[in-house]
Amino acid sequence: MDTNGHAALMYPGRDVVTELKSAGLDAVSVSLNAESEEKYNRLCRPVFAGSYRAMLDFTRKAVASGLRTRMTVVARQGVDIKECERIATALGASFRAR
Q1: d(Cα 47, Cα 81) in Å, to the nearest integer?
Q2: With 0-12 CB in 10 A as exposed, 13-18 as middle and 19+ as buried, what is 13?
Q3: pLDDT, tens digit, for every residue of 5-24?
Q4: How far apart are CA 97 and CA 88, in angstroms?
Q5: Which of 95, 96, 24, 97 is nearest to 65 (CA)?
Q6: What backbone torsions phi and psi does residue 31 show, to the nearest 5 degrees?
Q7: DSSP-derived secondary structure for 64-89
Q8: How distant is the alpha carbon of residue 61 from its chain centre?
Q9: Separation of alpha carbons 80 and 84, rounded Å
Q10: 36 CB contacts (<8 Å, ≥6 apart)?
Q11: Residue 39 phi/psi, 5° resolution?
C-alpha cells in the first residue's frame, strides 16, 4: 500500500496500522518527500497541521508492527536525498528515491 502516512490525523482515535496489519497487509510505502517539516510543508501543502510528524509516527508504528516498510522521495532539486535516506533507515524502513 502507498500512503502519505496521515491516517492518525484523518481518523483520530483509530489504530490504523494495527487495522491494516490485522486485515492482512504485509507491506507499506510511505511518501517521505523531504528531509524537514518546513520543506515538506512547502512541497506537499498538507491539509493537516502536524502532517510531517504524523507521517514519521506512522512509519515508526508500521515498522514496529512488523510491516515491511519503505519510505520514498522524489529525486528533485532542493531535496537532500542522503538525509532522507538517513531518516528512513533511522526509523527502520528501507528507502527508495524515485
Answers
A1: 24
A2: exposed
A3: 999 999 999 999 999 999 99
A4: 11
A5: 24
A6: -80, 105
A7: HHT-EEEEEE---TT--HHHHHHHHH
A8: 10
A9: 6
A10: 52
A11: -70, -40
